[in-house]
Amino acid sequence: MLHLSSFFKRPALTLLSVTALAALPLASAKAQLVNTYSMVASTGTFTALPATATAPAVSGYLNDGFYNALPIGFTFKFDGVDYTTVSASTNGWLTFGQNISNSTPTNNLTSGTPRPLAAPLWDDISFIYTGTGTPTGNNGKLSYATTGTAPNRTFTVEWLDARWAPTAAGPVQSFQVQLDEGTNVLRFVYLQGTGTVSGTRSASAGLAGVAANNFLSLSDLTSAPTTSTTTENAGITSRANNNRTFTFTPGGALSTKSARSLNALAIYPNPATHSAQVVGATKGQPVQLLDLQGRVVREQAAGITTLDLSNLSAGLYLVRSGAQLGRVVVE
Questions:
Q1: For 83-127, how does the pLDDT look when each residue is reduced to its tens digit (9 = 90+)?
Q2: pTM of structure
Q3: Which structural domains are found in the chain, ordered by start?
Q4: Among 11, 90, 168, 235, which residue has the fewest nearby CB atoms (within 10 Å)?
Q5: ∠76-47-10 over CA atoms, to 5°?
Q6: How many CB atoms lie within 10 A of CB 310?
């Protein structure tokens, strides 16, 4: 996990929280649908949950099983609906607010059930070795924890040392789903295991909303995947590199039509290192740089067009001047 108070640290590159956008007229009911979520790929730091995390008993088998009614510890809004529990499948996905009765590995973000769900690696995977011969590495496990202090807690479900497929001689991939309180930001975080992908694999990764055909599908698990809300890729065959992180921000606040109409700030170069030029600032208004929690970390006086980015942590920031918005990636 990446940022949880006394245990973890948030990844360097992630989308700005919705809290930072709350004062701006960008949100709508439609903007809460999964197919309006924004996604950013980055490299963070995968840290396994501590020994104090809860490891529930599996229903079914460690090859095809599930874990029902895991308490989030706070209310998390997903696809516009509030939830307080999730249920997870051994096969690399979890669903919100309902129990699982079949852990089926048949990946289908487009119209499959149950819905809604988050799927960091939806395929036939296992916490134990089911092949022949002598396996290597530890058996895997699922665990969960809620850490941090209200109203900024994070709930994490972790698939540790999963074998992809069940006949993989050693653990292939560990991964986590992280849910942030208040902002409703969701992350997938990955770590490679000692084994290699076994056989012909065909995974999905992404989000599925309550209704059929409301989904967000990743093209792959690389550093620069594309996303689609119209065509699901159910053919992912390569695992994610160590510390790969995909951050999903609800509402599509920086990608909706209304947001684009307000996003009049031009920022260059972008990405930037030490400074950037801002064009289109509101006359008489300062230019503010906001961090991942919506806090103003820099402010340039009205009329000054050079934004100072020195000594900032790498990541994605919101730039605001009056009602004008922009984004800048700091390297």
A1: 999 999 999 999 999 999 988 878 999 999 999 999 999 999 999
A2: 0.70
A3: 34-249 (no CATH), 266-330 (2.60.40.1220)
A4: 235
A5: 55
A6: 9
